[in-house]
Design goal:
174 residues, 6-stranded mixed beta sheet, two-stranded antiparallel ribbon
């Protein structure tokens, strides 16, 4: 379990939950140090968290740090989305807690025959990253993403990665 995190769960006007990450641990306008993110994620290995909506237990296994920081989906991220994924690592327990909208998919890749023998689950999550101007908080950028969970041969479900990170655009007031 990782301590010293400043993370909160709130509900928006539509009563949808958002994880607010108040401290930006992984800074950098151009490049994220993914080795630092990987080392941080190792602190979660062996932990277990529960999805509030379904009371399902989600474990953190040894594969998460490497997959989270080295996957093809991560390598395609740039700018704000890369920074958002790096900092989402600090809110793993809360993101699992608010996961919603479960979708199941059979495993089709031979390389995942053990770690996803029973298929894959995807869940929607939302999180906010603060935006500062001259050390003053001016707003939060809100991101949507998908948790990727594998259902392993041992019957347990493991967080495998966070995918499809995309900044939400603001909606005009009605």
């Amino acid at each position: 379990m990782i301590d010293n995190r400043n993370v909160n769960i709130i509900a928006d006007a539509d009563n949808r939950k958002i994880v607010f990450i108040s401290d930006i641990r992984f800074k950098g306008k151009r490049n994220v140090n993914w080795e630092d993110v990987k080392e941080y994620l190792k602190g979660y290995v062996g932990d277990c968290y529960m999805i509030s909506e379904s009371a399902e237990k989600i474990y953190i296994g040894n594969e998460l740090p490497d997959e989270y920081t080295g996957s093809e989906s991560r390598k395609s991220l740039h700018g704000a989305n890369a920074k958002a994924k790096a900092n989402a690592a600090t809110a793993i327990p809360e993101l699992i807690e608010i996961a919603t909208n479960q979708e199941f998919q059979e495993n089709t890749k031979e390389k995942h025959v053990k770690d996803a023998r029973n298929g894959w689950y995807r869940y929607d999550v939302r999180f906010g990253i603060p935006v500062y101007e001259e050390d003053v908080l001016v707003r939060y950028n809100i991101f949507g993403a998908r948790l990727l969970i594998n259902h392993a041969e041992n019957g347990k479900k493991y967080l495998y990665d966070i995918l499809a990170i995309k900044k939400e655009t603001s909606r005009p007031q009605q």
